[in-house]
Amino acid sequence: MPGGAPEGNHNAAKGRRWQQAIDRALARRSKSSGIEELDRLADEFLKEVEAQSITGFRELGDRLDGKAAQQVLVGTDPENPLTIQHKIG
Predict the structure, then answer these.
(1) What ranges make up the beta strands (E) of 1-89?
(2) What does pTM read for this prediction?
(3) CA distance 45 to 67
(4) Phi-psi region for residue 58, left (φ > 0), alpha (ψ -120 to 50) or beta?
(5) Residue 1 confidence class, pLDDT cut points 50, 70, 90
C-alpha cells in the first residue's frame, strides 16, 4: 500500500493558501517580492518582544524552537484501561 494521502486529497494545497495570501500581500507592499515589508514586520515583531509582551515572547519562541509539545495522558484510570485492538484481514 503506497504512503501518503489518497488520490484526489487536496488538504496540503489548502494548508498553503494562507502562506500564499501572506506572500501576495507582502509582494504588494514591497518592491523586492515582499522582502523589505517582511523585514519591517520582523522589526515590529521584535519591538513587541522587547516591550515584554508575553504574546511576543511566546511567538518568538515558537518561531525559533517550534511550539512546545503537549502532554497527553492516556489510560490513567485502572478501572478503564486503554485497549488496543488489531484487525487482521
Answers:
(1) none
(2) 0.43
(3) 17
(4) alpha
(5) very low
